[in-house]
Structures are given as C-alpha cells and as structure tokens.
Amino acid sequence: xxxxxxxxxxxxxxxxxxxxxxxxxxxxxxxxxxxxxxxxxxxxxxxxxxxxxxxxxxxxxxxxxxxxxxxxxxxxxxxxxxxxxxxxxxxxxxxxxxxxxxxxxxxxxxxxxxxxxxxxxxxxxxxxxxxxxxxxxxxxxxxxxxxxxxxxxxxxxxxxxxxxxxxxxxxxxxxxxxxxxxxxxxxxxxxxxxxxxxxxxxxxxxxxxxxxxxxxxxxxxxxxxxxxxxxxxxxxxxxxxxxxxxxxxxxxxxxxxxxxxxxxxxxxxxxxxxxxxxxxxxxxxxxxxxxxxx
Length: 294
Hints:
Elements (H helix, E strand, L loop, with lengths): L5 H7 L26 H7 L16 H10 L7 H7 L8 H15 L6 H10 L6 H12 L1 H5 L1 H6 L8 H11 L6 H17 L3 E2 L5 E2 L6 H13 L4 H5 L2 H4 L5 H13 L4 E5 L2 E5 L1 H8 L8
Antiparallel strand pairs: 1-2, 3-4
C-alpha cells in the first residue's frame, strides 16, 4: 500500500483522472461501486442506492449478526421470530429485542430477505474467519453512508492514523449540510467502529490503518455484488468491491481461482480476456436458486 498521488488514486479506484467528474460523490454511479444503472436489478438483489442507514445509530453489529448466523440460516428463516420470540441474541427487554431487530434488518435485510442476505448467511454460517468481511460487503451494499467513508480508509497507508473526523469529512463532502455536527460525529464514530470490527483499523482511540486478508468466500461474494452492480471481466477486479478487501486485480483474480476450487466461482482467462462467473456456481454450491437469476 504505497503512497499514491491524486491521479494514481483515482486510477486505483477504476476511473482515469481525466474522466472523473469532481462533483460526483464517491459511491455514486461511475465512481467505483457501480458500473451501470440498473436500479431495479440492484434493489431486488438488496442493494440500497440512497438514503440513510443503520450507521446513524449503530455499527456493524458483528457479534449480533454472528450469533444470528449461528442460530439460523437464511433459507426460510423467521428472523423476527428468532430475535423477538426466541430471543437468540439474549436481549433483556422486549424494546431491546425490537431495536436490534430493526437495526439488523436495515443493515442485513432480515425483513424481506433478498438474495444478498441469503448468500451472506450461507457463506457465513460455516466460516467464522470470513464473517467480518462478508458482513462488511453486505453493509456497504446496504448502507450508502458507510460507503461514503470507504475511500479515506482504503487509501490510507498501513499504520496511518484514520480518526473519525476524516470519516466525517468524507460524509460532509457527499452530503453538505445534511447532518448536524452532533449527528455527523456520531455517524463517523459508528463507521470508525465498523472499520475496526472488520480489521481495517486498529486501536481504541488512535485508530491506525492495517491490511485485511480476504478469503475465497469473501472474494466470491464481492464478485457477486460487483456483477449485480454492472461490473464484468477485468473491470470487476478493479472495482471498489475488491479494493475494499485490499486486493489488487492480480490478487483478486488469484483469490477467485481459490473460490473456483471450492465451487464458488468460475474463472477463465486468456490474454487480456477474463471471464468471471459466480451466480450459477454460488446458486448450486450454496443451495440458493435465487442467486442464478440476480
């Protein structure tokens, strides 16, 4: 993670500097997260394109979603019943159970259980090591405000301080005047906590950048989300969905080959032509037919 100049940083996020619209907020179409504009397809899959999100009041809630993954699967799961009725998350009050259900539903799609949620649960239930980055990918897909904070985190050098004001500035650039100073601070601190839970930052007070290590299931989910967001071939490997995993295109391709060995992807490369397919493979291996048609 060497130091990049401004032009190189834009290139690293998949958009040449001369083609960048300086007024385009990071996370909008064409900025690294999205290569096309099929809103209906993305929303059916579970991606949220605008609005607020759980990070206005909560973080990634990694321990809670991990406990829910261990207690259920996405296939026909009654998440509301698990949380409110069975109290699998061990909340002391009914109001506490309702609050966590609402926040988890917002971030992970527990109420209508879209295809992204089904893929996450199937990949995460047997792989605790991959769970933080799997959860992050879903959270980024479903919380536009968390997406707004990604660029300064990913571009920071290993060991570089990334404090909450840096994240607050990123949100302000994308949404000038939208949040009060108090709300902006809370949002930025929640996002900093999430980036710490995923391993991108470390430290309780002075948070410093560290490199994360993706696994084959994480790469497969990144490829699935990138596919739905309009990417294919080499462009997918340079998208924000892989940059967030600290994978350059070559490392991303190698990780997808590892995913292929586990039945989670199909990779064909000949010269400059790269074909990456994950929908059919994930649908068959995970037993989630919906994924074939996203």
